[in-house]
Every structure is written in C-alpha cells, then in structure tokens.
Design goal:
The complex is a heterodimer of chains A (118) and B (114). With 118 residues, chain A is an all-beta fold. In chain A, 0% of the residues lie in helices and 52% in strands. Classes of the chains: A mainly beta (118), B mainly beta (114).
Chain lengths: 118, 114
C-alpha cells in the first residue's frame, strides 16, 4: 500500500520553463491538496480538490494550475516558473467528509518534491 | 482570519520531557491536530483531540487543551533522539467553501541532544 506518491522527488528548472508535478493516491480518497513549504512560512495551501473533476483555490494559487481528471491523481502545473516558486511541494489526500469543523480531516502526505527555479 | 501560532525552536536533552505549545484562533467545536515531519519526509499525523476534551494520552504523548485560552500543547515524555523533527499544530478553517481545510502553524523544530 503506497499511500500518496509524488513524482518527481527533485527538479531544477530555469526561469520561464514549465513543468507538472504528479500526485497519486491509492486510498480511494475524495479530497486532495497541494501545499508548498518554505522556511519560516510553514505549509501554505495552493489548490485543493473535493472530488474528481473539481478544483478550488487555496491561500497561494497564483502561478499554479491544477487538474483532477482521475480520482486518484492530482496534477500541479507551473506554466512559467519563477524563482519565487522555489520550494518544497507536498501533496496530501483525505477521505470523504462533510464540510465544516466538526468532522475529522486527517490528511495523508506524500514525501514531497523539492523544486529549484534558477 | 484564522492563524495558528507556534514557537519555532525547542531544544531538550535526551530523556527529558518536551512541551510544544500552540495557540489557535477559533473556539468553536472542532478537531485539533498534531503532525510530525521528519527530515526529508512529508508530514505524518501524530495525534488529534476533539475540543470537548481537556486531555488525551497516547503512550509517551500527552495533548492538553485549554479552550478558554485557545492553547494546545503536546508533551513528549522521555524524549529520544528519534523524536527530533518538526511538529506542526493544525486547526480547520471556518469560513466559506474552504471550511474544514486545515491551517497549519509554522512548525516547531525539536532538537534532542544526547
């Protein structure tokens, strides 16, 4: 049982290049998330998805696009990479839940993608 | 909006107890979470507590919740070098369509000295 798998693990881009980060989960989870982690900033939500075919913006969506064509996959795209997008990117998934604060939202994380934009 | 605050660093000696503190913003009923991130890895859920509880104990881990002060703490008894990691506190958002998504604190880096 692999859980949440992210590819690639490392990548170096030049400014202006594009790339897609892939996240795959094998737990049949409805919800998926993309975060970025920067020193001193903690984890910030980029985009998330509440089910196949749906996506929504998080706290820091600018410069990123996402797609959830299949339930098990959540793709994060950088159309024109900038040095400010140098970060560690984490994907997470969680089971179905009703919206609101009174239900558990246990998220399962991948190992991360370390991206440098020169 | 919501904000989760934690101190950034904590250093303890092996065998001592560690206490990691967190303050959160929304006092409505909810689950609150502690995640652990080991070097070079993703976050793993460590434990959680529902806000109608004051305390939850799980082996070496004790979570204390003070709802009045909106203060959450994680105590690790008999801290080992393997406990060296970054610990994140998280609470769910409470507005709009994002309701239920988690807000993470900046993380407390625990260093355990032998």
């Amino acid at each position: 049982n692999a859980g949440v798998t992210q590819t690639p693990k490392f990548r170096v881009l030049k400014t202006g290049q594009s790339m897609t980060l892939l996240c795959a989960q094998d737990m049949n989870h409805e919800y998926m998330y993309w975060y970025r982690q920067d020193p001193g900033m903690g984890l910030r939500l980029i985009h998330y998805s509440v089910g196949e075919g749906t996506t929504a913006k998080g706290e820091v969506p600018d410069g990123y696009n996402v797609s959830r064509l299949k339930k098990q996959n959540f793709l994060l795209g950088l159309e024109s990479a900038a040095p400010s997008q140098t970060s560690v990117y984490f994907c997470a998934s969680s089971p179905t839940r009703t919206s609101g604060r009174r239900t558990k939202n246990i998220q399962y994380f991948g190992a991360g993608t370390r991206l440098s934009v020169l | 909006g919501e904000d989760v605050e934690q101190s950034l660093f904590l250093s303890v000696r092996e065998g001592d107890s560690s206490v990691i503190n967190c303050t959160y913003t929304d006092s409505s009923s909810t689950y609150l979470y502690w995640y652990k991130q080991e070097p070079g890895a993703g976050l793993q859920l460590l434990t959680y507590i529902f806000s109608n509880m004051d305390m939850k104990q799980d082996q070496r881990l004790t979570v204390l919740l003070n709802k009045k002060d909106k203060h959450l703490s994680l105590r690790i008894a008999d801290t080992q070098t393997g406990d060296s990691a970054i610990y994140f506190c998280a609470e769910p958002m409470n507005y709009g369509g994002s309701q239920g998504n988690l807000i993470f604190g900046k993380g407390t880096k625990l260093s355990v000295k032998p």
